[in-house]
Each structure stands twice: as structure tokens, then as C-alpha cells.
Design a protein that fits this description.
It is an enzyme of class 3 (hydrolase). This protein has 16 helices and 14 strands. It has 480 residues and is α/β, with parallel strands linked by helices. Strand 10, helix 12 and strand 11 form a beta-alpha-beta unit. The structure holds adenosine monophosphate.
Length: 480
């Protein structure tokens, strides 16, 4: 078994890791740490949750310590760019844990917080600056910071930075950091533009990959409710939330306005809820995330600002209240659950106009998502495609999952298969604790044994007669 010690890390860093309870490196750490320590540029294809922050952070810290320099005032030694404020804070928190026993200083700059304070923080020089691109450029143009002593550049979640329109900012910033630097680029996927960016800004990069794109969510149980409209979504949501009082539910809405409205509604009907989206201040976003992380609130309604990177190990349920326009976003969203070896459930709602979005997602993931209730509108495309085994069931090629519903067929067997598969594919740590295995609110929990096991996403009293269920849904649709 490889240890962190074998990877060439020094005493101070090793003791910080011990204090954190990191006893062995994750697959990406095992591969990337020696490469980065040796000074190579690196492309890492990996999702958050694989331990990639330590994969780039630890060797970078090690090299910074070995150089034994101090940054000049208003200069930096290493720069980490990430797409969202939340991710910046999360990365910085991790790095601060790693440098606790050293003199290195980690500073963050993000939009939505006081630029004046950030400017002051940068005054005495920074070893590691973690930043969102826009705010960093503002500070550069105010001459609050210069990047001329930068020897390390990390682009984290590069594909999301691209999606958020940061490409020009990234190009500008890359030119401000001296050429004789070490550059590390991490991305969950490798679209053409990222490959081009890597070609331009990295020198002879090595590549590590721990999770094939689209496969990260192997451990998540996925369900879809076909609903005739919004009211039905809210009804089912309310029911499943009630069924899972101890769960932590992250609910994705397409728009900021929709997220706020849904949060208010949930709050009104008695759920402790908060929301995070682009209209919230940095402080509000941080407070909401903290309250959710600490379990003070059990429901967080979010737009895609929370789809990537956010690491809250206790999330038991991810709801796609609205399906995302871009199928990749679904994979990122559901990756917020089933973290650190735990189980997780993803429940999607699909209104008639969303069916194509659902099919795009299924195509990307190579699975058909198990139907928890309702049926796709008549005449709409079925999952189709080749038969690929996936978390959501085997592809039947007939517009619905081949896995029989309501017969207890999914349970143990399929779960075990996928667990083994995901362990080797995704490179995620499995702590083997099975924590949350019986995650409160698993759709099948209440109606499991001794009845037809229906995995209907927590519809109480639904005893798994698929046809009956469909009829009821159709009835609703007629009324609606
Ligand atoms: P990341 O992918 O960097 O966001 O890491 C995901 C989570 O795994 C974070 O909560 C880390 O603190 C944790 N983590 C990273 N590496 C290890 C390790 N080797 N052992 C245990 N936990 C880890």
C-alpha cells in the first residue's frame, strides 16, 4: 500500500495530513503527487470528490516550502483559479489545513466581497492566492496585486470556468504569470476548447485520469418522476422530504427566481430551507452553505452555482427539480451526493417539455434512469440507444428501463455490482462504512420488505403496481 510518506512529502505536511485523518492517498493523489513534485505540468481529468485539491495542493506546498522564499509585497508565489466563490473558499480551507504547520499564507479573492479588504490582505505578499478570475483581474488592474513572481498556476474546474465565460480572463491571467512556471489544469471533462487552452498554456503536460467523464455518479441511485406540471413536482418533493426528515436535500432549480420562490414555498410549508444563487451576496451564500453543512437546515435550493465542486459529505438527496439545459450539469449536480464512500439518491422531475433534456442526459451517461412514477408523454422519444448497464437500470430499448419495477429487483444485487465498478472506475475513496446506506428517505425505505418493493422516490402508500401508478398519473394529467 502506498502511503503519503512514500510519495515524498515532508514531515510538516505529513503531520498535517495525519491530523486530518488522511491515512492513505486517493488514486489521483497517488498518481499526481510524484509528477507535480518532479516539476511536471499536469492535466488532471477528475471530479471534485476524488481528492484532487490535495493532489495539486500537497506537492505545490512541498515545492513552495523547499524554495524557502518569501513573496514580495503585493506579489504572489502560487495562483489557484476556480470558477465559483464557494469553490475558492473550499479549496482555500483545504490548503489552509495542509499548511497549518508551516509559514505559508493562503489568501482568497472572490467577487461579491469587499475589494478594499481583499486589497489590504494582498499587501504583504501571498504564498498561495486562490481566486475567481474576474475579481483577480479587477485587483490586478487596481495594482493591488501583481503576478510576476508566480511560479505555480492551477486552473481548477477548467470546464466550468469555460462554461461560465471565463475563457478571456483565463487567457489574460495566463499571460500575467511568468512562462517559467508549473501549470496544473484540472477538469471534469475535456472539451475541445480546454484541450486548446492546455496546448497553449501547458508545457509537455503529463496526464492523469481517475474517472471517465460521465461516470462519476455510478454510486448514485437515480430516479425520474414524469410529471404533468410544476404543482406535481412540488407535491412529490414535499412528500419525499417528509419521508426523509433526517436527510440533507440539495434541490436544483434552473433559475435564480425559481430557486428563491421554491425555497420560500418550502419554508412556508415548514421545511427549514435556504437558497443559494447568483442574486445572493457572498455572505448569504456562505451562511447558507454552512448551515446546510452543519445540518441546521436540511434543504438547500440552488441554481447551478452549487452544481460543481461543493463538497458536503452528508448530502443524501439531490433533486433535479428542473432538469438542466446542459446534460453535463446533471452529472455534476448528482455528484453532490454519494460522496466519500456514502450512498446517495438523485431524483429528477421531468415535465412533458423536458423529455428531450432527460434523453440527452441518459445518452451522455449511457443509462436509462429508473422511472419512479408517471410515464413519458405519448409519442416522445424513449431512452433508445445501445444497451448499457448503468445505475439507473439496464436499457430496455423500449422507452423505459428493463429493470422490473415494484418487484424488489434493484436492491442489493445491482447496488453491489455498481459499487465494485465505481470503486475501480471513479477512483473515489470508499470508506466502507456504508454510512447513509439506508439514507433516510431512500425511496424504498418505508415500503420495502414484505410488500412489492417500489422505488418510487418516496411516494407513500405506493405499493409498486406500475400500471396502477401510471394510470393514476395519467388521471392527474387529464385533470391538469
Ligand atoms: P476534493 O476532491 O479535493 O474536493 O476532496 C474531497 C474530500 O475528500 C475533501 O473533503 C477532502 O478533505 C477529502 N480527502 C481528500 N484526500 C483524502 C485522503 N487521502 N483521505 C481522506 N480524505 C481525503
Amino acid at each position: 500500500m502506498t502511503t503519503f510518506h512514500d510519495l515524498g512529502l515532508s514531515k510538516n505536511v505529513l503531520s498535517a495530513l495525519e491530523a486530518l485523518g488522511f491515512d492513505k492517498p486517493t488514486p489521483i493523489q497517488e498518481k499526481a503527487i510524484p509528477m507535480v513534485l518532479a516539476g511536471n505540468d499536469l492535466i488532471g481529468l477528475a471530479q471534485t470528490g476524488t481528492g484532487k485539491t490535495a493532489a495539486f495542493g500537497l506537492p505545490m506546498i512541498e515545492r513552495l516550502l523547499a524554495e524557502d522564499r518569501r513573496p514580495d509585497p503585493r506579489n504572489i508565489r502560487a495562483l489557484v483559479l476556480a470558477p465559483t466563490r464557494e469553490l475558492v473558499n473550499q479549496i482555500a480551507d483545504n490548503l489552509r489545513d495542509f499548511v497549518k504547520k508551516t509559514h505559508l499564507r493562503v489568501v482568497t479573492v472572490v467577487g461579491g466581497a469587499s475589494i478594499h479588504k481583499q486589497s489590504q490582505m494582498l499587501e504583504r505578499g501571498t504564498d498561495i492566492l486562490v481566486a475567481t478570475p474576474g475579481r483577480l483581474l479587477d485587483l490586478v488592474s487596481r495594482k493591488s496585486v501583481t503576478l510576476t513572481q508566480g511560479r505555480y498556476l492551477v486552473l481548477d474546474e477548467a470546464d466550468q470556468m469555460l462554461d461560465l465565460g471565463f475563457i478571456h480572463d483565463l487567457r489574460k491571467i495566463s499571460k500575467l504569470v511568468p512562462k517559467n512556471r508549473q501549470t496544473l489544469l484540472f477538469s471534469a471533462t475535456m472539451p475541445k476548447l480546454i484541450a486548446e487552452l492546455a496546448g497553449e498554456y501547458l508545457t509537455n503536460p503529463l496526464k492523469v485520469e481517475v474517472s471517465p467523464p460521465g461516470k462519476a455518479a455510478d454510486k448514485v441511485e437515480q430516479y425520474v418522476h414524469f410529471v404533468p406540471g410544476k404543482d406535481h413536482k412540488t407535491q412529490i418533493l414535499r412528500q419525499t422530504l417528509n419521508d426523509n426528515p433526517d436527510g440533507l436535500a440539495l434541490i436544483f432549480s434552473r433559475t435564480k427566481h425559481g430557486a428563491e420562490k421554491l425555497m420560500k414555498h418550502l419554508d412556508h410549508i415548514g421545511f427549514k430551507a435556504a437558497s443559494i444563487h447568483g442574486n445572493k451576496s457572498q455572505g448569504q451564500r456562505e451562511r447558507a452553505l454552512k448551515a446546510f453543512r452543519d445540518g441546521e437546515i436540511r434543504v438547500l435550493v440552488a441554481t447551478d452555482v452549487a452544481a460543481r465542486g461543493i463538497d458536503i459529505p452528508g448530502v443524501t438527496h439531490v433533486y433535479n427539480y428542473d432538469l438542466p439545459e446542459v446534460p453535463d450539469a446533471y452529472v455534476h449536480r448528482i455528484g453532490r451526493t454519494a460522496r466519500n464512500g456514502r450512498d446517495g439518491i438523485a431524483i429528477a422531475f421531468c415535465a412533458p417539455e423536458d423529455i428531450r433534456l432527460l434523453r440527452d442526459i441518459e445518452r451522455l451517461m449511457g443509462i436509462s434512469i429508473a422511472v419512479a412514477s408517471g410515464e413519458p408523454p405519448v409519442g416522445m422519444p424513449g431512452p433508445g440507444g445501445k444497451s448499457v448497464k448503468g445505475r439507473g437500470g439496464q436499457r430496455g430499448g423500449q422507452g423505459r428501463p428493463a429493470r422490473p419495477q415494484g418487484q424488489g429487483a434493484r436492491g442489493g444485487q445491482q447496488r453491489t455490482e455498481h459499487r465494485a465498478q465505481s470503486g475501480s472506475q471513479s477512483g473515489e475513496r470508499g470508506d466502507g462504512t456504508g454510512q447513509n446506506r439506508h439514507a433516510p428517505g431512500r425511496p424504498d425505505q418505508k415500503h420495502a420488505e414484505g410488500r412489492n418493493r417500489n422505488h418510487a422516490g418516496g411516494r407513500p402508500g405506493n405499493n409498486g403496481n406500475r400500471n396502477g401508478q401510471s394510470r393514476r398519473q395519467n388521471g392527474k394529467r387529464e385533470q391538469a
